[in-house]
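Sample intake sheet
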Amino acid sequence: MKKEQPFVVFDDVYKSFDGKAVLKGLNLSIRKKELLVILGGSGTGKTVLLKHVVGLLVPDRGDVILDGKSIFDFTENDLLEWRRRVGFLFQGNALFDSLSVFENVAFPLREHTSLSEKAIAEKVREKLKLVGLEGVENMMPDKLSGGMRKRVALARAIVMEPEALLYDEPTTGLDPITTKWVIKLIRNVHERLGITSVVVTHNVRSIIPIADRIAFLYRGRVQFLGTPKQMAKCDDHMVQEFLKS
């Protein structure tokens, strides 16, 4: 039986900014349809890793293979097409304050498709329902709670029906109850849509139970990669120190 090709592969990736090395020979394969959690302290390269996945950054050395193709072989049109396949939930949500909930979620469809307004309205309502938001289409972002804004951003990220969804610190600024709700929603959306999910977070205790695998970054490399059970039993000093903290 032929082994399925990984969705994304980091092959000995190095990346520096202003002479400061962030990724230092990082190797990682992201499997199709898995929920991978990326853990690590500040400055370990978690968000930099995500930006390579969507082609916002390219390695100084090494390679990033996107569904079998080197990022260095992508044209601008290739990158645009790739980004339509990958949804991104930004840490700050990045909602348009001047647009209603409906207009925010509809925005990608109007920008990148030729769907009718009726079809757009159906997709917007469908995705809002999936994230537990109904009847809020006409509300403005500044009238929503932090958790509701996060869900609107998630609905917008999945409205184009991507093959993968990237989350950059999805629980930052949320209270503990809302955090638990959002984490359960991440797993629910992952399973309902059958997509690849990559979650960058420092919220260790809450996020580990929903992961298929966990990658722990330390000093620009993957220090540990395995299941939640394997991580709990891991005797690596840096992994255990991070879990305790």
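Comment: The chain has nine helices and ten strands. The two ends are 43 Å apart (CA to CA).
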